[in-house]
Amino acid sequence: MRLLLAEDDQALADATVRRLREEGYAVDHAADGEEAELFLQTTAYDLIVLDWMLPGLDGLSLLRRVRARGVTTPALFLTARDQVTDRVTGLDAGADDYLVKPFAFAELLARVRALLRRGSFSSQGGTLRVGDVELDLGKRSVTRKGRPVELTARELQVLEYLMRNAGQVLTRSQIADHVWEFGQDVGSNVVDVYVYNLRRKLDVGSGAPPIRTVRGVGYQFGEERG
């Protein structure tokens, strides 16, 4: 899952990015509203976490612009504004949730998980199932044919992206752009290594491999869509 954090408090941003990445999310950080808008114009995100009082273009105006373009990505406001009228204004502008500063990271992570479960790409019950592979989005656990599969945080991100786009052929660049943070130098061979590891770990000795290589293009999870 790829998240955008728009926060101008550098210390808070650094701590938030670190905690989110520890949970296995790919996170891009924007320090002002204009930078955040540029990210949103060029990258597809699963969740937007933004401060209200951003320099330049404030978070409220940014979110209104995003919603006016028809973008439905879930959005969570982080702000010191704690009046009921402020919350109503934020929600009316298109926010899906509202967290008042200072906050506990445990609560932030819980709200992030809840919004991602409610997001337009989330499956019923917070679980992705493709064939005999099952990914529990809440527990961040994987099974194949009922057997647990131990994956690293990055392997989970790659698998989740493949499963959310099951049947589609995804290029190595698409996978890298969605799973790794903006600005990271990710060669195609890095994606190949992660896919190789996923195949090896998902191999339970029977059944067709769930990840298929499309020569010269990329990878496909599950059967091709008709």
From TrEMBL:
Protein name (Swiss-Prot/TrEMBL): PhoB family transcriptional regulator
Portion annotated as DNA-binding: 125-223
Residues where 4-aspartylphosphate is found: D51
All residue ranges annotated as the OmpR/PhoB-type domain in the record: 125-223
Alphabetical keyword list: DNA-binding, Phosphoprotein, Transcription, Transcription regulation, Two-component regulatory system
CDD domains xrefs: REC_OmpR_PmrA-like, trans_reg_C
Domain of life according to the entry: Bacteria
Pfam families hit by this protein: Response_reg (PF00072), Trans_reg_C (PF00486)
Alphabetical list of InterPro entries matching this protein: CheY-like_superfamily, OmpR/PhoB-type_DNA-bd, Sig_transdc_resp-reg_C-effctor, Sig_transdc_resp-reg_receiver, WalR-like, WH-like_DNA-bd_sf
Coiled-coil region(s): none
RNA-binding listed as a keyword: no
